[in-house]
Amino acid sequence: MTRFPLTWPSPRCLLVALMTAAVASCASSTPAPSSAKSSTGERDTAIVHEPCEKDSASAQKVDVNGDRMPDIIHVKKEGQEVCRVVDLNLDGSIDAFIYYDGNGVERRRESDFDRDGRADEIAHYERGAVVLKERETNFDDKLDTWDYYEGPRLARRERDSDGDGIIDQWWQFNNPNDPRCAVVSTDQNTDGKPDPNSVVDLCAESYGTPKAIPPPPPGSASTPAGAAPATSAAPASSAPAPANAASQPADKKGP
Prior knowledge:
Elements: H1 11-19, E1 60-62, E2 72-77, E3 80-86, E4 96-100, E5 106-111, E6 121-126, E7 129-135, E8 145-150, E9 153-159, E10 169-172, E11 183-186, E12 200-201
Antiparallel strand pairs: 1-2, 2-3, 3-4, 4-5, 5-6, 6-7, 7-8, 8-9, 9-10, 10-11, 11-12
């Protein structure tokens, strides 16, 4: 996994960047989301850090707790903030890199949740709203989960559960009122497509999926229209009516 850089790029790297049209390791442009690199189930699982020149002369460093270590670093270009480095829990380690577009609106965020100095999640924004989160969830330093948002709601998820760089799980979050509910399909025969017989609804009953109702017995009041009505009378050996049957209306007597 790419670690957050602590120094300027090497002179050799800068020279290569000048001699070629584009070199990913030296470029300052925004890395494309890995999900955009393939229209199939294959994914680029590398976690790429976008440069943020936190040690530049124009960077403004803020010490929140007075320990003489910067907790917030505002990196500016031509007077406008382009990215920000944040130590959220004031432990001296970077927790997030936040990037802004030309209008000062957040466009990207790299977050380190397990405090190991490496990004676990890269969130992509459009007009300030998150649209995609690329995540590393199993501590192997590779992306394995892609969450897609519609407005503030998580709408669908794609996962590489076995670490081979190919999507093998598809999640559809079909209940807006409960983000835990989803219909999940998996690829068990490794053809790169969801298997129809693998579909699992995680919480169907919680949002009102009707249960199967057994058919009523013949002759009951709920016999479906068109069904043959019962014609035989109760057998002579039927259980006798209750002792208080006489006090019931005529149509309520008997079993």
